């Protein structure tokens, strides 16, 4: 499977308009088809990424894919289902936000590929900041690489308004050190996702993310 079918996007579009259990149950067979298709795509994507990141090769596609059922316990929005399908391909991590990896998000009108550290827990965030403080030139070289600039523009993420603890105002990397998340995001058009060759294109994007992820993961056990 080298792309996501338009049937899957159509199902997600209708789910957004009919986000309740009765409709979902009536259309469960469509969900199962979309789920099976996405799993096959992720299996292919794992093989593609493992060409340049061997740590991804042994991943189980099913375990990398997020459940469609929302946890509504602490949310005012009680809609039972997510209106997207996604997967996070990451090695050596027990939780989603323990390590930088490769994220794919499929949602009509909001499809994207991403990598990096999303709201990393304090121990990891401290490691990232220490790495940037000590190896700022290397990190800037990564995020200013032509491929990174071409696909992602610049890193994204919420920033502190003040300096992180332990870093002076005149630190040469102070603006980078203020980030609380370090993200590389590549937006997609729906027709790219459903078009032939999307699998190869996604692998190309993730190859450009690999040095960024590797830097963020440095120093982790």
Outline the structure in words.
The chain has 221 residues and is α+β, with helices and mostly antiparallel strands. It has a single domain (6-217), classed as BirA Bifunctional Protein, domain 2 (2-Layer Sandwich), CATH 3.30.930. The chain has 10 helices and 4 strands. It has helices at residues 6-17, 21-26, 28-49, 61-64, 122-134, 136-143, 146-152, 174-177, 190-194, 198-217; strands spanning 85-89, 101-106, 111-117, 182-188. Strands 1-2-3-4 form a 4-stranded antiparallel sheet. Strand 2 (101-106) and strand 3 form a beta hairpin. The longest helix is centred in the N-terminal third of the chain and has 22 residues, at 28-49. It is globular and about 60 Å long. The two termini are 35 Å apart. The mean pLDDT is 94.
Record keyword descriptors for this entry.
221 residues, alpha+beta, BirA Bifunctional Protein, domain 2, four-stranded antiparallel β-sheet, 46% helix, globular
